[in-house]
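Researcher: Batch entry, complex prediction.
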Amino acid sequence: MQTKKNTNETGNVLLCVLGTILIVSLIGATVLRNSTTRLNASSNQVRAWKEALSAAETGGDIGFAELRKQLSDPANQWAGWTPSGTGYGYVSPETTFGNSNLRARTGVETCYFDVSGAFHLGSNPDPNANNWYRVRSKGTAPLPNLKRTGMDDALTNDGLQHFAAFGSMQMQDITARGKGNSLLRKIDFQYDHFVATYGPNGDGLNKALVTASYAPSISRRVEQIVMPVTPFFDAAIKSATTFYGLGSAAWIDSYDSRNGPYDPTVKTNPNSLYYNDSRHGNVEIGSATATIMGTIYGDVATDGGNVTKKTANVTGTIDNNVPFTLLDYQMPDTSAWTYQSSPTNVTSTKTLAPPSAGTSNAPIYYVFTTITGALTVNPAVVGGNPVDTYVAIRVTGDISGGNAGVTVNPKVHLKIYFEGNISVKNNNLVNQNPSFANPYAGNLQFYGISPPAGTPQTVTLNPATPQTLAATFYAPSADVHENGNPDFIGTVVCKSFYSNGNISWHYDRALNDEGQLLDFRIASYVEDTR
Amino acid sequence: MMVAMATASAILGVTVTSSIALQRSFNSTDNYLATHTQQIRIVDFLARDVRRGLSVVSSVDEQTVQIQIPKYIIQAGDPEAILNPLLIGTPRSPSRAIVSRDYNINYGAAAPSFVQYKVNGASIERWEDGVRTTIASSTDNLLPQTIDTELANTEYTTTSITFKPISVADRSGTIVYATAYLRNRRRPPP
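Model: Structure tokens for the complex:
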């Protein structure tokens, strides 16, 4: 028997199979599409977004390293950089680095803050003060593969109806996803959205359609404020080890010479405009041992805290958790300084008449073996008039003896770098710039070059008829003894400090930015998230 | 005929069942990945704000985080914007103050921006100066927990985020950790 072939059923199985394949294929295609976009969002875009920050911070590090060349290699600072359009700084070449070909570019601008704390671009008008810097860096990470948005962004925007029921949890999910990714990770598919929307400096000026350095890519921008580390910041006395002082009737307060001469009534007059300036007579001690005598109109900081005696006479706070380290001090680079071959020592009364004014970065430079006599430094005379004159003296031996001393005349800015010890009478250090009645301590600065390890260094200021002593001492390896009771204006940074005289000691807040540049430090970090 | 129909029905049944199972499996996977993406987004939002933060406080239940961030961009209503509306949307210049023997760099005379992260139902919300943004929302019950650790010389937050996938009962396998350090000098929290 032969069964008749039913031709009407021909192809049914094929249709079923094809239908099944179609359904499975659709599901598979949807899954693949979703997976790809999810992978793109959760892997590529997240990775690029994080790497862009890494690149931006690398750019900041590059700028920071270039700034530090001011200390280590000033001749080659800014080599390869181009002047910025603002005229206040430099822009780095674009650096490409890493396996992902990240790119970084940095702009460094010189700036300063005035006495009120307001920001200004450009160099500090006070030639003795150190500049601050604004470092803006941009980091870019390429997005590999095709130009894809995240899946969540593509589905909906705020206010647009979606296939999911409005108000449903599913809708909430989708809406949230769309908002979240768009706000967080801004992708430049073709053009740099930041330049197009906010301008290259982000200030709304010079907006332009600029092709992104990679397309697509993600860029992030970071702004950091870099401050100079200076030796005399906000401390009347800073001692790395022990502190004893001052006399029981002594006091330490502060003022700001930019607001006028020192006024002893301000520290106890809350109605004074400058009352706040009077409460920065701070004492910082890098060990746990501190014996407080007299009155301190400011804070006391120690490392581990064993503050004894008149702790109730500290008007500010006593913070016993402030460790710090004073590094050895080395003679700065003198290659750009104007060297004078004579005199070579001061053994009797001697007057220096510098041949030219010099600058704060390139002073007139003398090298003495000792100072045992009275040295007077006059300003240079240009066109018959004395001018502001910057002088640096290196003393390879001691500054000592009953007649040893230094007199700084008006318009002279003197820095003395000593390798040996100091032992002089208080009243043999005379600072008359700008005047004897109102001297500025920053015009007579002593720097103690650290001796080899194990070799002691001392600074001893001996009793004499009390008068004003306006000077700064930065001697991180020296044991300082103040044996007299002068009216002291300035600051001392040392290894250890001892004094039992009834001194009136005034820290000048104008010293905050002054003194030898020791290093740089990042004072602020903010990301421009636009 | 009966055998053929039975066989065909069985095949169809298996196909339909497989399709549904596949679809559910794919849906679960897709949902898992979508929620995982949101986990990362929460972490990234939080880390971005903590990194530039001036102070961070996390609540006892670890589900609310308060951060002060510099008010870098001039916004409508700010004093500078009132004086010059063209400044809206532009970066602020910093100012400087000395507090406790060190410099504070401030952006704007007013208080810094106040950012708060919190859980609201199934949503994770970010509030900045009173403006809400839902940064994540999921039926999978995302659960962020942030601990703020203050040390003598630094401060950081550790965040862990879990969710409960529709296909798996246990949320512990979904945990994502992140740590972010503050870059700026710390300020007292408001």
